Amino acid sequence: MLLPTVLPADGLVQLGVRVALIVLIAVLLRVAVNRVIGHVSAGAGVPGLLSLLRRRRGVSDADRIQAFGSARRAQRARTVGSVVRNAATILIFGTAFTMVLGQFGVNLAPVLASAGVLGLAVGFGAQNLVKDFLSGIFMLLEDQYGVGDHVDLGDAVGTIERVGLRTTTVRDLTGMVWYVRNGTIERVGNGSQDHAVAVVDVPLAIDTDVTRAAATAEEAAVAAVRERGHAADVLDRPQVLGVEQLSASGMTLRLTARTRPGRQWAVQRAMTEHVVAALRADEVELAA
Amino acid sequence: MLLPTVLPADGLVQLGVRVALIVLIAVLLRVAVNRVIGHVSAGAGVPGLLSLLRRRRGVSDADRIQAFGSARRAQRARTVGSVVRNAATILIFGTAFTMVLGQFGVNLAPVLASAGVLGLAVGFGAQNLVKDFLSGIFMLLEDQYGVGDHVDLGDAVGTIERVGLRTTTVRDLTGMVWYVRNGTIERVGNGSQDHAVAVVDVPLAIDTDVTRAAATAEEAAVAAVRERGHAADVLDRPQVLGVEQLSASGMTLRLTARTRPGRQWAVQRAMTEHVVAALRADEVELAA
Amino acid sequence: MLLPTVLPADGLVQLGVRVALIVLIAVLLRVAVNRVIGHVSAGAGVPGLLSLLRRRRGVSDADRIQAFGSARRAQRARTVGSVVRNAATILIFGTAFTMVLGQFGVNLAPVLASAGVLGLAVGFGAQNLVKDFLSGIFMLLEDQYGVGDHVDLGDAVGTIERVGLRTTTVRDLTGMVWYVRNGTIERVGNGSQDHAVAVVDVPLAIDTDVTRAAATAEEAAVAAVRERGHAADVLDRPQVLGVEQLSASGMTLRLTARTRPGRQWAVQRAMTEHVVAALRADEVELAA
Amino acid sequence: MLLPTVLPADGLVQLGVRVALIVLIAVLLRVAVNRVIGHVSAGAGVPGLLSLLRRRRGVSDADRIQAFGSARRAQRARTVGSVVRNAATILIFGTAFTMVLGQFGVNLAPVLASAGVLGLAVGFGAQNLVKDFLSGIFMLLEDQYGVGDHVDLGDAVGTIERVGLRTTTVRDLTGMVWYVRNGTIERVGNGSQDHAVAVVDVPLAIDTDVTRAAATAEEAAVAAVRERGHAADVLDRPQVLGVEQLSASGMTLRLTARTRPGRQWAVQRAMTEHVVAALRADEVELAA
Amino acid sequence: MLLPTVLPADGLVQLGVRVALIVLIAVLLRVAVNRVIGHVSAGAGVPGLLSLLRRRRGVSDADRIQAFGSARRAQRARTVGSVVRNAATILIFGTAFTMVLGQFGVNLAPVLASAGVLGLAVGFGAQNLVKDFLSGIFMLLEDQYGVGDHVDLGDAVGTIERVGLRTTTVRDLTGMVWYVRNGTIERVGNGSQDHAVAVVDVPLAIDTDVTRAAATAEEAAVAAVRERGHAADVLDRPQVLGVEQLSASGMTLRLTARTRPGRQWAVQRAMTEHVVAALRADEVELAA
Amino acid sequence: MLLPTVLPADGLVQLGVRVALIVLIAVLLRVAVNRVIGHVSAGAGVPGLLSLLRRRRGVSDADRIQAFGSARRAQRARTVGSVVRNAATILIFGTAFTMVLGQFGVNLAPVLASAGVLGLAVGFGAQNLVKDFLSGIFMLLEDQYGVGDHVDLGDAVGTIERVGLRTTTVRDLTGMVWYVRNGTIERVGNGSQDHAVAVVDVPLAIDTDVTRAAATAEEAAVAAVRERGHAADVLDRPQVLGVEQLSASGMTLRLTARTRPGRQWAVQRAMTEHVVAALRADEVELAA
Amino acid sequence: MLLPTVLPADGLVQLGVRVALIVLIAVLLRVAVNRVIGHVSAGAGVPGLLSLLRRRRGVSDADRIQAFGSARRAQRARTVGSVVRNAATILIFGTAFTMVLGQFGVNLAPVLASAGVLGLAVGFGAQNLVKDFLSGIFMLLEDQYGVGDHVDLGDAVGTIERVGLRTTTVRDLTGMVWYVRNGTIERVGNGSQDHAVAVVDVPLAIDTDVTRAAATAEEAAVAAVRERGHAADVLDRPQVLGVEQLSASGMTLRLTARTRPGRQWAVQRAMTEHVVAALRADEVELAA
């Protein structure tokens, strides 16, 4: 099959026609595909595509899409469109090239197809690359995070510095920059979407009067929000949930407050300081 | 095989007939398949399908199906139907397209089939995608969870925000939004089905009079339900199970109460506070 | 190979004969297979099949089979029979369909067989599904557990709510419902078969008189069974095994009692409470 | 290749001859194979086979083989023989069936061989089944454990209840029955072979006179064996090995005694109790 | 296919022409490819390529690229170019060689392609090598780290000694040199990019006056920077974030300061020493 | 390909000749191979083979080879030789059988080669078996351990009872017999080769005079060797290495002594007891 | 394909010519390849090859290469050369043998290539072997360690006893010899390259005067080097880095000193002893 058959003298014209046909079809196909992709990715296209992946979102989807601003959405549309266009181009011209070579009796297909030992090694070795890129594309499509979001990628926790197709870059608390391969990310935690929650767990001695402690703590938490200038950061009034945990070493009283994304740590610190101070002033015994 | 044989001048009519036949069959097949799918997914279809997966459910299945409301069931039926229909369409027209090309002497099949190195890499790299979608479809079919359910997906614990075909989105206690790939979910814990249980483990010193402590605790738990307004949340009277654990550092007394789903944490907190207060008032020594 | 050869005008009769033959054989085969399956799964069939898997069971096999009641056995036989029948039907008609298409010069086989990139991705992605179903079928065949059994599946511990072919559903202590994929279950612990054992480990100070403590504990355990109404639950008289563990922080005295399945926790709690009280009354120093 | 060629009118006789030949050879082959298997598995066969796997056993191999009793050996031989016979039958008739079909122009081979997408999924999904059965067969052949043995399978520790080809069943201390897939067992610990060892580790304060403590402990251990009726269980005189461990929190003195299999726990408990009592009587300070 | 057909006497000329053609095309192709690669890797090429991978970098990308200095960029361009050139050469001449052999009736392709048992073993065994090299190439392309950077590769933490295509070499704190295979690196933490952060967590007793402690600590941190000569190392004024953690054993007060990369440890040590001394002087009780 | 072509009446003689040729060659090949293997495995062969694997051994290789005694070496040579011979026989006759069948128009090759679904399942399921045997053969060839050696296989620690081709059997401290599949052994620790080291780590209070403690300990260690009859077991004079570890809870002083293999534990225990007694007598404060 | 076609009477001469040609080419090829390999591995070859792998080494590469001594380099060159030569020989003659057989109508290729079930099992089972050898070859090429180096292979820590192609042998602290399969080594830590670092972490009470403690410690460390005869071992003057860690239980003061490889432990012990003694003499409170 690999042997080029003797070139038929009277087949040369036919050969030329066929080659021209292949090239022509490839070019036309590419133009058509690019146009479709451009059409789809601009305007209504990508949202339509996204709606397939998103179908069941809960509350306030419209609001949130709006919140992205059209800038971020447009940028994502462009990135996705360019990825698809490049893939289509490579596929179309690669196939055409192989077919033209085939017209000249040089069949690359078997060589490529059954590279055997080498093929196995390279094919399997490269699967991670493919995984990384596929994961990257889908994370982009589903808009799981953007530059500046606070995320937990399992391997790294911090602020997104760059969203790449193969790797995502995150800078953590200590300023370390983490390059995480997209294919190794099994779940993404994004702390910058819609709202966050400040959680304070106060350790209490086991013979504390919980009712009084809870009243004092709630009052202090509200004061913390007011006095430390976090009024704009907190979406609801802080509230005491109650005793969260009971063990031989004491109880844990939990307070929470919904905040704007990115503000949860500041609010949480303010609440912690005020609550501890208030409980101490009130002579409530903290676990020790 | 890849070489288009010289086009037979007298075969052009036959070729046209064959191409038309292929296209016709594909279109007819698609219409037929779509009709069957629509028929199956509407009305009795999906429940019938589901009953295959569900065959051995325990108690009160009828009740629960009812509880879903027809809205959620209909939505699920539509999603599943649309997934199946798209898959069938892609399969039918893809095959038809390949066969038509084959009529013109352009065989895509070998190229696709034995893409060799590239094929291995892409095929293996993409298997995770397939896993994710297949898992998503089955989780949808088995209705393992819906938006608003409190779930434990292993990688993330919280409230479902969105049930996607590739990823499920969960918002946890701290407001962090987790994107979990469906294929990585090995087991799902759903805390919002039918009922939940509030569990309180009270640590006791090893020389406590357990009988008296149990009586005091049970009374306090009942009072907690009554006084804190949880009467509607609790399905049974709270009860003391007894000493659950015995170790060098003391004993653990366990109380439980069946509650409506989603109310277990509030009931549990109320019971904890009342039981600890009552035991302290009764001078029962808690482990320290 | 994919190109339908020009339809031979004089071959139409032969073609019709062959197609009819294929369909006929397929239908006959299916009838025959179904009959055999029905025969095997009803009556002596499944037990015979099961005996292959069970060959080396220890004691009281006959008793236990009886204990299942014929209801559970019949249900299992039906489920298994229906699974096998569906598989056979799909296999037979699928093959016939492919062969009939082949008669018309439309060969699906190569397309299916060598779907290449897509095939790899889907084939590998779907292997988990197959694993789940195969595991489910074998767990059913071996009757590892049934609805209501208390099981430990590794990923989830609790009471079986539903035994599905793809997933098993378990409700745990806190009322959470766990969906566990059958293929991820590596070992099953079933606490509801034949009997269970209540185990109490009493922590003793290192300078305790073990002989006296053991006597006191055994007496108390027997009293616990008698006085707390567990006489019917306990199969043997509770006994003290002796010092199980010796470490720098003390000794551990172990008592056990064989109970009816499902009653081990109640018996264990009663024994714990009585033994601790008796040792305290006897002024035996427990580890602290 | 899948297209049955037109049946040659003059080839019918030859076809009949060939089909008969195939069937005949298959039947003869099966008879021959079964006879060989029966021959091998009865009498000298299996031991011969086993000797291949066992070649390098240490001491007292002959004794142990004898100890199995001929009952257990015969049962194993029968199980193995039946497994091999069934496999051979399936292989021979399956091949013959495929070849007969091939004579009629119906080639199942390509269909089976290249089931493509489905084949990949099923083939990979089923590999666990094969692993389980292969592991089961080899564990049987090597006689790693039998019903009643105390084993540690990693996933489960307890007494063997049933040795199956796919799963092994173990009942643990608490009466729970564990079904462990044979293919998931990486190493087997069998505590019921030839002899066991009771090990007592006594924690000593760091300023203990080790020589005196060792003498006291050894004497007490010997007394424990004598006075508690374990003379028949213990194969050697218990002995003190010496200080096993030295750390900031004290020393550990180790005593061991070789026992009959299954009696190690009773002996160990008796020794522990006597040694601790003797050391206390001798005013040797135990670590606290 | 492997059998060389009898050499056609009249085909020798044609054969020579075809061989010459193959060699000619191979040489021309190689020249063309090398030229393109040289063109791309020099000047605008690699940055263009990189921009594909980098598209979404956050702040100050231009600055940073500049900071690399042209030396490091040029070196990376050369390395990448040489890798690509070698790969292309091997591919082109390998294919040509196989095709020439094919002209003489010696088909290596099937041998290579279907090396069967051996091929599987070698192909799979070698996939790690491929993974390592592919990972190495991409890490180089994305410039994740360079010689001298302080990195955390998961398996090893320390300073980069060498960036190889298969392995990366890191020297850790104790002077140990770690060879890490690039394919095993799932995420890279680079502590030498743009800036780092010194973080000091001061443990406080639970009844400390946090406000006063924070003021003292901040003042001390600023003094540390000034007095210990770190003014040039610190980019912002050190600041107290507040109480980071609250537990039964006390609170944790966090201070941070952005520093130049590589200077974070020195700054952190200076700040720690000054803050502890100041708090002690101020009689603030540290957790003990 | 599977269809036996009609037997050519005039080809019968040729067929007979070919079959005879195949059988003859197979028999001759087997004789030749067996002779070569016998030649190689006896005498200089295996060492030569081993030297390939061993090339870079450090000191005293000759001595050690000698130490094995010729018995163990001969046994290993026989085992390896028999394995290779069986493999060669199976390969040669299996190929011949397939080829003879092929002469009669019965091609087993395609059936075997492309068993499809079944083949995948069995092939993958059986790979663990192959891994086990290959690992076993290489461990034998490299002589990593023999019966009676004290080894750490990761999964099991103890004394080798049997070295099998598929599993290795180890008896641990408690008399439990572990069957470990050779393929699951990633690294082997052998404590019975050439020499061992007794290591004693003495915990010292942080304000101990290390110089005096070291002197006392070394003297005591030497005395322990002399007085407890370990002079023949210890290869060098015991020595104090110095302070190995420094932490908040004290220092650790390390002593070591090279011993004959298998005697390290007895020596270590003697040294521990003497050193602790001497330090106590010397009023050196041990960590507490 | 497997059927030898009837030997063409007039083709015998051609056959002979072709066989001779194949053998001739194989022999010539082997001679040529061996010569090239010999040329490359001797003299400039291997370094050139190595430079490809090493391209980016940091400081003093020339010095280090020199330090190896030519002996070690030459040995490595020989080992590598012999490996490559053997592989080439096997490849060339194996291919020639297969081709010659093909000339006689005996095609081994399909048998080898598509061994089906067996092939899968053996191929996959053997991939670990291939991994081990490939890893071994590359570790040799990159000269990651040599006999006598102190290494951390993850699975084993100690001194290299032998560098094999499949396994590496390490003797650890207790004299145990570890056989580690090269393919399981993910990262290698080599503590014998160029220099090492002695690190002493002194625990200080939280209210220590760090400045004074640091001064005392540094002085003591310098004294330790001088007085204990380590002047030649230490490359730089020991220095105090400062407070490394601050926690509720105290501070940690870190001292380091660069040493000659292999001397870090002795230096570290000397420094520890002197620093602790000096701090105690100076009445600095160490953490307790």
TrEMBL record, chains A, B, C, D, E, F, G:
Main location: membrane
One protein family per Pfam: MS_channel_1st
Superkingdom classification of source: Bacteria
Keywords: Cell membrane, Membrane, Transmembrane, Transmembrane helix
Transmembrane segments: 12-33, 83-102, 108-130
Residues in Mechanosensitive ion channel MscS domain copies: 128-185
Protein's cellular compartments: Cell membrane
Descriptive protein name: Mechanosensitive ion channel
Gene source species: Actinomycetospora chlora
Highest classification ranks of the organism: Bacteria, Bacillati, Actinomycetota, Actinomycetes, Pseudonocardiales
